[in-house]
Write a structure and sequence with these properties.
By secondary structure, this protein is of the alpha/beta class. Helix content is 24%, strand content 21%.
């Protein structure tokens, strides 16, 4: 058994699809018998999103409760700690407890690179998992503490290989894929809400997506965008298939929404199907399958990005 500190982006953005991307790591390590502590820091002012009010603030109380409920629902008693990087206010643990957790840890697993505390250096072994290839390497996210790790992994499996244009910054990026814990998708609640398979062939292929997330960037004189760029290439697709295609989307303006509806896409609100984890799970398991687009930057750079939902 190892002592592992996991850092991520769950408390600040407690939206089901986002949370589960990190939760697979925590639950998986816990189920393997490791001693896990989850730590998150504020990152920037007003970084805490409240899914009930749709407002951002410096108060992590809502996110902390959502994450605690998620852990409890899977029978986990993993310690959860949140630090405001500016005020140094701490929730869940006190500073001596947190520093002890760092000193005793066999590993710090920083998933996504959107957290950094100077105290991370107390961990004897530190690993960064890049979830957002190209945007990480070009400094869009995860800049602070970038050179403080002993090993680097990325969902961009082609980084450093011929044909991939993502800069390595002199780092040996090791390929990895998102972990999936089947238990998350086979709970009693999931089975209870699984609809009859009689109409399976009539169900739509679906995806839940953020249209433009945090925006694209210009790098080396070229533009690298988000999912919107790639979805626009698929605008006419419903005209060429009898299959129903549905986008549950956020961040798109009315003009784009109507363009997609006019060509046969079914459109829903991502917020509507992501109210909580059970609602999110029910939407996915009662779809015919996942159909989505990768971010434009992933495609353009030949990143080799691989998703846990595909």
């Amino acid at each position: 058994m190892a002592r592992i500190v996991v850092s991520g982006y769950m408390i600040r953005h407690p939206v089901p699809g986002n949370m589960l991307a990190y939760f697979h790591y925590i639950l998986g390590l816990h189920r393997l018998g490791h001693d896990v502590v989850y730590v998150e820091e504020s990152g920037w002012p007003r970084s805490c999103y409240n899914t009930s009010t749709w407002a951002c603030s410096d108060d992590p109380a809502h996110g902390l409760q959502v994450v605690r409920n998620l852990f409890t629902g899977f029978g986990m008693t993993v310690p959860i700690c949140f630090v405001n990087r500016d005020s140094r206010e701490i929730r869940g643990l006190d500073w001596p407890e947190l520093k002890d957790a760092f000193r005793q840890a066999d590993l710090l697993l920083n998933v996504g690179g959107v957290c950094w505390l100077p105290e991370f250096r107390l961990c004897r072994r530190r690993v960064l998992v890049d979830m957002d290839p190209f945007f990480t390497q070009t400094g869009k996210i995860g800049v602070e503490g970038f050179g403080e790790y002993h090993a680097y992994f990325s969902y961009g499996a082609n980084i450093g290989r011929r044909g991939c244009t993502i800069p390595t910054n002199g780092i040996d990026w090791r390929p990895t894929v998102p972990p999936v814990v089947p238990e998350i998708w086979s709970s009693e609640h999931i089975q209870k809400n699984l609809q009859s398979m009689d109409d399976f062939c009539d169900r739509p292929f679906t995806t839940i997506a953020n249209w433009n997330a945090y925006g694209g960037i210009n790098h080396g004189g070229e533009y690298y965008g988000q999912k919107d760029e790639e979805f626009l290439r698929l605008l006419e697709l419903p005209r060429y298939t009898s299959q129903r295609l549905e986008l549950a989307i956020s961040g798109s303006n009315g003009k784009n929404t109507e363009r997609f509806r006019s060509t046969g896409w079914l459109i829903r609100s991502a917020a509507e199907v992501s109210i909580d984890v059970p609602t999110y799970q029910n939407y996915i398991i009662n779809s015919r399958g996942e159909f989505s687009a990768a971010k434009h930057a992933y495609v353009k750079t030949h990143s080799g990005w691989f998703s846990d939902r595909l």
